[in-house]
Design brief:
The chain is built from 12 helices and 9 strands. By secondary structure, it is of the alpha+beta class. A 7-stranded mixed beta sheet has the order 1-4-5-9-8-7-6, sandwiched between helices. It has a two-stranded antiparallel sheet with strand order 2-3.
Length: 333
């Protein structure tokens, strides 16, 4: 039994040195497994002839095996506890930290500007309408009293489409004004409508031009509408969009589809800036759509959304809005 007592003497230190479950399993097999010295001693008990002596030897072997097994179980419990603690530490979540929020998306500055302007005119009683971006020559020009000799019909200004083999009859609309004629053909007066949408010009991209941009067209038709109504409506719009202290002025201009015509300027950022074109609807336009110009009068106006955004936010280069640079656009969330 001397060799088993020696085994019991070294077992505590060796077991305490085991740092992993695998190392402990190896010691378990070595100390109390089927090939261990304890298992061999139990098998040799049959060689002891004296029953009393054999009983004492078996009791001694069991006591040593029990003590070593207890040491192994205690060390296994310690290692499993340490392993669980490491796992919990690695998976720990600090609930005192603020949560990670998904960044909130938003509309492009031009879209949000258009939405806000549309809301202003809806608040003034206007209806919103949309029209086709591929337009006919008739609605884009002729119905609006723009003669065939007008420079805007040239290919240097207008992007014509090869459609059905008809030359110069289908084009990408150069303004949202065609919806004036289309809307009046389908609706009896009184008419109060705004038309937002994309328009297209044969322009190179620079600080103030783009071949694709957005406009908002406005049309008001009823009996006894005067230039004073036009000025009051647009002045109210400017004050709602730019601020209640915004000053505006109207400068005579020329548009084929309005008579008289004007440009509206606003005093903002310390100077007068042109905002939009406007005027009283030309009687020829009423005749083209079946309205009686002797009974009805009206006004129309058109503005570029990019220009409105640039004036409001002090942006000097249109290309800033076209670059889709988040570092720039996030400033106008």
């Amino acid at each position: 039994m001397t060799h088993l007592e020696e085994l019991l003497a070294v077992a505590p230190s060796r077991i305490s040195e085991a740092m992993t479950i695998a190392e402990l399993d190896a010691l378990d097999a070595e100390f109390v497994g089927r090939s261990s010295a304890i298992a061999a001693a139990r098998r040799s008990l049959g060689e002891i002839a004296d029953g009393a002596e054999r009983g004492l030897a078996g009791k001694s072997i069991n006591q040593i095996a029990t003590q070593i097994s207890a040491l192994l179980d205690a060390r296994r419990s310690d290692l499993l506890g340490a392993q669980e603690s490491r796992r919990l530490s690695e998976d720990a979540v600090d609930v005192t930290l603020p949560g990670r929020r998904i960044p909130r998306g938003t509309h492009h500055l031009v879209q949000s500007t258009m939405d806000e302007i549309v809301d202003i005119f809806v608040g003034l009683g206007y209806t919103v309408a949309t029209g086709p971006e591929a337009e006919t020559e008739y609605y884009n020009f002729t119905a609006l009293n723009i003669p065939r000799t007008h420079p805007s019909r040239l290919e240097s200004d207008t992007l014509y489409l090869d459609y059905g083999g008809k030359k110069d009859e289908v084009l990408l609309r150069t303004h949202t004004s065609p919806m004036q004629a289309r809307y009046m053909e389908k609706h009896d007066p009184p008419t109060f409508v705004v038309v937002p949408g994309r328009v297209f010009r044969s322009d190179a991209v620079d600080a103030t031009h783009s071949p694709v941009f957005t406009q908002l067209e406005g049309l008001a038709v009823d009996t006894n509408i005067t230039l004073a109504d036009l000025k009051g409506t647009l002045a109210s719009f400017a004050q709602q969009f730019f601020g209640t202290d915004t000053k505006v002025k109207f400068i005579p201009h020329y548009f084929p589809f309005t008579e008289p015509s004007a440009e509206m300027h606003a005093y903002t950022n310390g100077r007068w800036i042109e905002l939009l074109g406007c005027g009283m609807v030309n009687p020829a336009v009423f005749e083209n759509v079946g309205y009686d110009p002797a009974v009805y009068t009206g006004f129309a106006f058109g503005m570029g959304m990019e220009r409105m955004a640039m004036v409001r936010h002090g942006i000097t280069d249109l290309r800033t809005l076209l670059a889709s640079d988040r570092r720039v656009l996030e400033q106008y969330r």
